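assembly run, all chains below
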Amino acid sequence: MKSYRKELWFNVPTRRAFINITPQVEECLRESGIREGLVLVNAMHITASVFINDDEPGLHQDYEEWLEWLAPHEPLSRYRHNRTGEDNGDAHLKRQIMGREVVIAVTNGQLDFGPWEQIFYGEFDGRRRKRVLVKIIGE
Ligand code: ZN
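ok done. output:
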């Protein structure tokens, strides 16, 4: 069995953003040389997500509004977590609902997606360097 590991780095200039990272994950898969197996992609920070859905701007705006409705960034005093001196109580909640990781099957050297599936990095507390782990196992 082969094994491959890579960290993808992001420094999002805004507090929140959704970034399509499918091309980077496909590049990792090419580098790995693995034809049959599994890809794990996970955020390495507890205020960011990795998830799979459609690359459609209206949907991404819907996510943004829905997440702000569920867990508004302000007032900061709304969150006990912010009593630690942080201001990212909302980001931890947003990350929880959007998920930590995805697993994708690798078939014939390709990501074996369903229709319209793409991989996204969801940033909820940006403006600093953060990482996503890509781990691929197979043969
Ligand atoms: Zn925090």
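The CA atoms of residues 39 and 136 lie 4 Å apart.

Strands lie at 2-11, 17-20, 37-43, 48-53, 101-107, 110-111, 118-123, 129-138.

not gonna interpret more than that til we talk
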